[in-house]
Design a protein that fits this description.
about 90 residues; mainly alpha; MDM2; about 45% helix
């Protein structure tokens, strides 16, 4: 009987280290991208940063502005920006 190979972790589930700016929101421990996004949404909802007129837009507070680099981003743009903050 052949030995079982360890299951490969998909790239999506690989723990990534957040940048200093992003760590202020999600913590400084390596996390899979899905958990980073989940924690970021928790922060956005807790602080009422989702735009009331257009729910697809996120309004930055000072902490998120350091991550996003601007006052407002779309939820789709947010994921693209996050890639720059995860190594």
């Amino acid at each position: 009987m052949a030995a079982k190979k360890p299951a490969k972790t998909s790239a999506f589930m690989k723990p990534l280290k957040p940048s200093t700016e992003l760590a202020k929101v999600v913590g400084d421990k390596p996390l899979p991208r899905s958990q980073v996004v989940s924690k970021l949404w928790d922060y956005i909802k807790k602080n009422g940063l989702q735009d009331q007129g257009n729910k697809r837009m996120i309004n930055s507070d000072t902490t998120l502005e350091a991550v996003f680099g601007k006052k407002q981003v779309s939820m789709f743009e947010m994921n693209k920006i996050l890639a720059k903050h995860l190594k």
